[in-house]
Amino acid sequence: MATVQPGSFLTLHYRLAGPAGDIINTFDGKPATLSLGSGELSPAVEQRLIGLDEGVRSTFELAPGEAFGERKADMVQWVARKLLDALGDPQEQYAVGEVVQFPTPDGQGQYAGAVRQVGDDGSVLFDFNHPLASQPVTFEVLVIGVL
């Protein structure tokens, strides 16, 4: 039976939940595949996986801020409509609560921001904090396969 080690490639079901409920839950659908250390999960969540055997199902409680850090006020920012148009579709309409994907400066990845407010001039106030920042997190996992 294989055991999760740093750098392991995993197939698993997992659920991340905060006080308001599930943020992600793969138990009702297709399992996730990921490589530990690639940044797909937070380091604190990955640490909980180390040492688990294939077939194990576990639940972990992480303290507020441990899984996704503390909320940072400077991660809530107004973005000008001109920049939004340059990054995406100029016809895009933004709604409060919507999550928008942005390209990283190097163009190799993406990051997300949640719309908090839309200004009269078309600018948008985004919150780039993780939705579970400063929150206690429940992490449930079923390790299906380890390579």
Q: What's the structural blueprint in terms of helices and strands?
A:
Layout: E1 9-18, E2 21-25, E3 32-35, H1 43-49, E4 57-62, E5 76-79, H2 81-87, E6 99-103, E7 110-118, E8 124-127, E9 137-146
Antiparallel strand pairs: 1-2, 1-3, 1-9, 4-9, 5-8, 6-7, 7-8
Helix-strand topology string: EEEHEEHEEEE
Using the CA coordinates, give the radius of gyration.
18 Å
Question: What percent of the residues sit in helical stretches (DSSP H or I)?
Answer: under 10%
Characterize the largest beta sheet: strand count, sense, and whether it forms a barrel: 5 strands, antiparallel
Low-confidence runs: none
- Name the structural class: mainly beta
pLDDT averaged residue by residue: 95
Give the DSSP E fraction (strand runs of 2 or more residues).
35-45%
Helix count equals 2
Assembly status: single chain
Distance between the termini: 11 Å
Shape: elongated
Task: Give a structural overview.
- There is one protein chain.
- This protein is mainly beta.
- It is 10% helix and 39% strand.
- It contains two helices and nine strands.
- The strands form two sheets. Strands 1, 2, 3, 4 and 9 form a five-stranded antiparallel β-sheet that branches. A four-stranded antiparallel β-sheet has the order 5-8-7-6.
- A hairpin with a 6-residue loop joins strand 6 and strand 7.
- The protein is elongated, with a radius of gyration of 18 Å.
- The protein starts with 8 loop residues before the first strand and ends with a strand.
